Amino acid sequence: MASRSDPVTGLKGVGPARAKQLANLNIFTLGDLICHFPRGYEDRTKLVPIAELRADTPACFRAVVMSTPRTAHIRKGMDLTRVTVADYSGRINLTFFNSKFAAEALQYGGEYIFYGTVSGDYGGYGITNPVFETPDSPPAATRRIMPIYPLTAGLNNGTLTKLISLALALCDPPEEIIPAEIRQEFDILPAETAYQVIHNPKTMAEAQAAKRRLIFEEFFVFSAGLSLMRAARAEKKVSAYAHTDLTPFYESLPFALTNAQKRAIREILGDLQKGTPMNRLVQGDVGSGKTMVAAAAAYCAYLNGFQTALMAPTEILAEQHYESLGKLFAPLGLHTVLLTGSQTQKEKRMAREALSSGEAHIVVGTHALISESTVFANLGLVITDEQHRFGVDQRGRLSAKGHDPHILVMSATPIPRTLALLMYGDLDVSVLDELPPGRQKVDTFLVGESYRARINAFIRKQAEAGHQCFVVCPAVEENQELDVKAAAAWAETLRKTVFPDLRVSLLHGQMKGAEKEAAMAAFARGEADVLVATTVIEVGVDVPNATLMVIEDADRFGLSQLHQLRGRVGRGSAKSYCILTTHNRNEDTIRRLKALCATNDGFKIAEEDLKLRGPGDFFGSRQSGLPAFRVADLSLDMTTLRDAQQASKEWIERFGQSDTKEARALRERVAALFARAEGTMN
Prior knowledge:
The structure is a single chain. The chain is α/β, with parallel strands linked by helices. Helices cover 39% and strands 17% of the residues. The protein has 23 helices and 23 strands. Strands 2, 3, 4, 5, 6, 7, 8 and 9 form an eight-stranded mixed beta sheet that branches. Helix 7 packs across helix 23 and helix 19 (587-598) runs antiparallel to helix 20. Residues 615-625 and 678-682 have low confidence and may be disordered.
């Protein structure tokens, strides 16, 4: 038997060119081939009479060749072969392009099984390039449930099917990792059966059973991995924080904390006193006061002689945190420094010297914090803001600058709890589910293009009142295929035609980093009345003077993303508004957008978004740190996810520390899964 780790080049027919094509699908070994699962199936088991063939509906039929195949040379590099076939119900013309095989294999009077699609109207003119085989040959392309695989240029489904069959014949499938008791409890197929059946099912029911096993397996491995990570963290020992009296901090605040903030701080202080590294997510809606919770944790670290690093995804957000925390902590005797990429060399050097000497107690920065030249005297707490904006290794690289420092993650993206367990499954979760008093509710309206004049008048009214406005477009440049507003062109239209007397600026993701930072900083200083932007402003923008958010072609965004964008306004004392525009009249689309108009509760919106669109808005970026599942679809397989999470919990309790073959195999799979996830982030 061959090994699953053997290279695919050992297979017959896989030379350098074919190996390169397979590499484009991340297939390098026989094991990779076995784990290249179908994206769907075609049921080719039912034979249809020719008279019942329908246009644009692929089908199998049995027919006799009624004419000798005729091949004509159309032009250079193009030959066309035609043949007529018939059964008891009728006849149909077949056409093959550049198929020497068809011209030679199809014999007058011979009977064959064909599979293809009629082109044209009912009755059609024929079928182009059908696959075929003789009735007495083993079912390969017809009379079977045909797996349909993800492909790449130059590699067709038939070739990939043959290669996978070869790999299955040469080596064993992956080892069993799910104990028999759990398989029986959750009605899960054995591994050997599932890996064979997924590629060669005899019925669609078999295919579904095999797919469910593999979905369960992926979730089981991931959930077990998170549990093992938690267990490993619990074994680490750090100094328990002895000083947790935050009275001076509370007394310095110009406002009272919400009950949710107090609860989150209590949970954090409990973690800090355990003597094991904290790993906690503070998840709260836009404006729920996460920064004050993080500040309380930083003050506690200071009381116990440790430094804090807060990493933000943008320089604008880092500067905003630096200013607010600096003002808050200065009266308490804490020294706060800023460290970003756009600072002068002198400014960076001074900040780093203050950190290495211990003079600085808190540093707020961007990716500059994880550079080799940044050294801490005693880093004890790492805070990351909007964690999904960072690669999974970046949090680790910052943590490596201390001795198992405590980790606090902040996220303003409300996530349904089941998905939070996946995205942040190795973290304990604190939820801020109430807003501070005085936080503005943003009135939201959904309108069509017929309201354009009224929208423009409202933008002007806000500007004349001394306020500012965001206008968000889904595209940077015009694209006829998309038919949506483009930021660059729309900004020019507003500047020259609609608001020639107002200050209109532009911000989008294709601008250089320094240009983006400068445009956003200028808007924050009040140097523009209207900022036309893409979703680059979704996170990390705090302009209290902005009172209006206009989102063009709102149907192009997910609800959670729209909610994040809406959260850019309503940050000051003035009444704020959000206007969603769309010319899409689809009932589901309108229902989805009206759901946003009906509530400002991000968690309700997140649940609605999950029901309507699936989890793409939460995990659309590979920066989420979530491993790419090969079979599972989070929008469809939530029941299986919950079963697998329960099963993995049982497994950890019963077998987690055992040295059985299954336990060793599972630990190997966990390590491979997280190594693969980290590889996609770099």
